Amino acid sequence: MITLCGFALSNYYNKVKMVLLEKGVPFVEERVKTGSKDESVLSCSPLGKVPFIRTEHGAMCESQAIVDYIEATHPNPPLVPADPWQAAKVRELVTFIDLHIELVTRELYPKAFFGGEVSESNAARTRKLLERNLAAFKRLAKFSPYVAGDSFTQADCAAWVSLPLVTMATKIVYGEDLLAAAGIAWKPYSALIGARPSAQRVIADRNAERDQAATKAA
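RESULT FIELD:
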């Protein structure tokens, strides 16, 4: 059985968790903080990042490698189209979401979510990148009704957990939702995906962990 390691507030952890739930793959969860220096973590995820998985074959880190492994070992229901071109287009979208949108937005997280600061120059640089990258993403994404077209895919597991962070972070730092400003109508899409049982489980677990953390901090 797969052991999914990480924590429920991590969007990449939830990306993998959503894939597991959509496919009905049995798994257990193990709470692991990001940045751990514990050898038991580093032996599985050398940068101390989450998520990672433990399997009968060994450990694996990096969310996209994990979901591709799950797709290969549990092909039904498919979350990647059978057609090679369409499959590549789904992975193109995932790369855009993870690398060109979420990773760029992450520069704002210290101020948006953790009570830190972001320098004016870094905030300006990040805004310029985000405006360019979101315009590019709009050209690729279909939202008809799913990110890649008429079928739910890996791209939705990536988009649904990360796009709301763009809205929240940019509204806090810039006073403006850059996702909406780019003409990306993500709220109806978010509601559509949020109605899925897998998303409901992710939301419930995330909220429970958030509430637990708030109680400890009080």
